[in-house]
TrEMBL record:
This is Uncharacterized protein. Residues 13-34 are annotated as: Disordered. Residues 15-25 have a biased composition (Low complexity). The chain crosses the membrane at residues 98-117. Keywords: Membrane, Transmembrane, Transmembrane helix. The lineage of its organism: Bacteria, Bacillati, Actinomycetota, Actinomycetes, Bifidobacteriales.
Length: 124
């Protein structure tokens, strides 16, 4: 299920056995591969050549019965982490940088509201 994609170390395989149809949900392993020299681990993607991760350790992944999913480690230059992001609600009229929520992985549900998402490197 996990391919370290040029890194080193191993992430334990996950599987579930079922005699019924439907789907099952996995919590992705929290351990991370050791990245190649000069790189950092950004997350997991569904393709070997991906440059942006789709999943982070601990995220939930739902898999249909009978399916096999392979996740590939995604690496970027050191300091290029995609774990920090800013979510700003443009309908508030607040100036840029105010009224924001910073988090690692964010799931949003909006009913009747427009939400704009953008990435911004946070300076500490």
């Amino acid at each position: 299920m996990y391919d370290v994609n040029g890194g080193s170390g191993a992430v334990a395989y996950q599987s579930k056995t079922s005699t019924s149809s439907g789907s099952t949900t996995f919590a992705l392993r929290h351990n991370k591969p050791t990245p190649p020299a000069g790189k950092e681990f950004l997350g997991w993607a569904m393709g070997r050549a991906a440059t942006k991760p789709v999943f982070q350790p601990g995220d939930q992944l739902t898999v249909q019965y009978g399916a096999t999913v392979k996740l590939y480690a995604v690496y970027g230059a050191q300091g290029a982490s995609t774990n920090d992001c800013v979510v700003q609600m443009p309908t508030t009229g607040a100036p840029d940088g105010l009224n924001v929520l910073a988090a690692g992985s964010i799931g949003l549900v909006a009913v009747g509201a427009a939400i704009g998402l953008r990435r911004r490197k946070l300076s500490v």
